[in-house]
């Protein structure tokens, strides 16, 4: 019998993909399913970006590129960070990867080993914990609480640091809660982290352009006191509706960049050349598609939150960022995962149970509002009928 290394027994999953597969299964059986499960924009990639990739292929860009990405794209990324966030980043410290997820994989592999502690948001993107466990490190959850507007608390985060802490992962705007951590809290975190020079930080800012109600995104790149150990994760998946293209990028401190480059050489070699040319067009071209998409998410956000708050025993905080609502369902009498499963199987609405994002996700389900307003209304109607008529299972 083949025996793989034991680490695989600790490797987790992203249940959103399993829910998507089940939703597609049910659709094939002829069921009408509204999918509020998967976290990807329901928009097409803007045409000028698609054209840039087609042109790159026609122009013969068919070969490998440098492992860290083509220079015009790394320059465009640095220019975008300067324009949007007013931070100076050298293109030589930018790494282009097939999706932002790769940067978290790399960062966790760099710091995760038995005996090391890595802190991560809970509820949070499930791959954080999965990779920490795979690496053999000890996962230390940073609780993310509704009472705190689903922001992380700087004080609580700092209080969890021990001499074994090697890496802290933070994410704002956040998946799955839609929480945006206020600037004062980010200031306090950066200030407090200055006292822990041996701790690296991975700031997952992939939803940085998706904020609402005048909330502005505060990047951790803006704090010189932690730049020597800060890894920024960003990418095109969400901002430019490019999840399937696989285009992410990250900014690394000088001391870690070479490690990241070597990991790239040892795994994917480089990101698809045509995708990288598309990335240049995305960053350097008109940004109105991004603005329109965020405005449409904002409209749906209001519909989804208003509708959720009308459901029996459900309450939903207003998400300030990303495209997720994370309603509190604890008063319905249901546990979150059985509720999400029954909503899919019986009511034809795909959502994700909060515990798929960590133990602190119990009592909540995640709804992605990356779906049309009509479908959102249909889903809310179905959820209302279901909760009114079905006894908790
Ligand atoms: N980080 C967060 C918080 C996410 O929600 C996602 C995707 O859902 C990613 C990173 C990775 O995105 P990608 O690998 O498509 O760039």
Structure keywords:
393 residues, alpha/beta, Aspartate Aminotransferase, domain 1, Aspartate Aminotransferase, domain 2, 2 domains, 7-stranded mixed beta sheet, 3-stranded antiparallel beta sheet, 12 helices, globular, binds pyridoxal-5'-phosphate
Short description:
This protein has 393 residues and is an alpha/beta fold.
Summarize the structure in words.
The protein is of the alpha/beta class. The chain has 2 domains: 6-44 and 288-388, Aspartate Aminotransferase, domain 1 (Alpha-Beta Complex); 63-284, Type I PLP-dependent aspartate aminotransferase-like (Major domain) (Aspartate Aminotransferase, domain 2, 3-Layer(aba) Sandwich), CATH 3.40.640.10. The chain contains 12 helices and 12 strands. The mean pLDDT is 96. The site of pyridoxal-5'-phosphate (PLP) has 13 residues, from loops. The site of pyridoxal-5'-phosphate has 13 residues, from loops.
């Amino acid at each position: 019998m083949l025996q793989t290394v034991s680490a695989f027994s600790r490797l987790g999953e992203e249940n959103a993909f399993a829910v998507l597969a089940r939703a597609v299964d049910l659709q094939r059986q002829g069921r009408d399913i509204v999918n509020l499960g998967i976290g990807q924009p329901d928009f097409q990639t803007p045409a000028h970006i698609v054209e840039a990739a087609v042109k790159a292929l026609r122009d013969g860009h068919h070969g490998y590129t440098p492992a860290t990405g083509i220079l015009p794209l790394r320059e465009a990324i640095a220019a975008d960070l300067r324009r949007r966030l007013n931070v100076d980043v050298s293109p030589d410290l930018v790494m282009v990867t097939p999706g932002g997820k790769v940067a978290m994989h790399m960062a966790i592999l760099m710091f995760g080993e038995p005996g090391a502690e890595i802190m991560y948001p809970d509820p949070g993107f499930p791959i954080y914990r999965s990779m920490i466990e795979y690496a053999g490190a000890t996962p230390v959850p940073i609780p993310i609480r509704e009472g705190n507007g689903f922001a992380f608390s700087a004080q609580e985060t700092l209080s969890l640091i021990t001499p074994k802490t090697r890496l802290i992962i933070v994410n704002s705007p956040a998946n799955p809660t839609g929480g945006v951590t206020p600037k004062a809290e980010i200031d306090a975190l950066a200030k407090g982290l200055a006292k822990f020079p041996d701790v690296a930080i991975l700031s997952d800012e992939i939803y940085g352009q998706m904020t609402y109600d005048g909330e502005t995104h505060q990047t951790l790149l803006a704090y010189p006191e932690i730049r020597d150990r800060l890894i920024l994760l960003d990418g095109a998946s969400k901002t430019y509706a490019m999840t399937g293209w696989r285009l992410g990028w990250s900014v690394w401190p000088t001391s870690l960049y070479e490690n990241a480059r070597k990991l790239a050489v040892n795994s994917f070699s480089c990101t698809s050349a045509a995708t990288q040319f598309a990335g240049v067009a995305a960053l350097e071209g008109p940004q109105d598609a991004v603005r329109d998409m965020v405005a449409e998410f904002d409209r749906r956000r209001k519909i989804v939150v208003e509708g959720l708050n009308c459901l029996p025993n459900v309450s939903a905080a207003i998400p300030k960022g990303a495209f997720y609502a994370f309603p509190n369902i604890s008063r319905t009498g249901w546990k979150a995962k059985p509720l999400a499963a029954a909503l899919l199987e019986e009511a034809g609405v795909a959502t994700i149970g909060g515990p798929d994002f960590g133990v602190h996700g119990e009592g909540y389900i995640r709804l992605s509002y990356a779906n049309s307003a009509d479908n959102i209304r249909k889903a809310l109607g179905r959820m209302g009928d279901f909760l009114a008529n079905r006894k908790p299972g």
